[in-house]
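FIELD: query
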Amino acid sequence: MKVGYRRVSSLDQNLDRQELVGVEKIFEDKASGKDTNRTALNKMIAFVRNGDQVVVHSIDRLARDLRDLQTIILQLNEKDVGIEFLSERLVCSGNNDDAFAKLQLQLMGAFAEFERNIIRKRQAEGIAKAKAKGVYDNRKRKKKVSYKRILELVANGYNKTEIAETLGVSRMTVHRAFRSQVEVLT
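FIELD: result
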């Protein structure tokens, strides 16, 4: 049986670019690759049986570093399950006796880990430069709340929960805004 595994790093990312043609069952994770305890990955490893083939778009979608990659491959090989990486055009059989495929996998895994480390270094350098210029403050911007709008909703009989739902903010945000407005009025 051909089994697919797809992963993106966050909930708002899309799995569409990782096309897995010809698989009978797909397991999908929306979690960071640094997290080795991924729900769908664990279910996929538990699901596959002797002779199955796992299909993954690329090595970095399965594991973030070489150690994790080797651990996952070992778990699959112990079950006599093969694995195919589409973008690297690499197939590792479950019998684990292909020395060239093993070398190739380790090299590709090491390059994927190296690439990830370079990206993180560049990102950190960019953030440091942006902070030095005063452009980056690493803070998510909160939705602005109009005190006037909150007071209008209160005057119309809305409670804090209804106001929060109407404005798309948390109840605590409404409470803080209302409290600070009341303090200004007194």
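FIELD: remark
Residues 2-118 form a domain with the Rossmann fold fold (CATH 3.40.50.1390).
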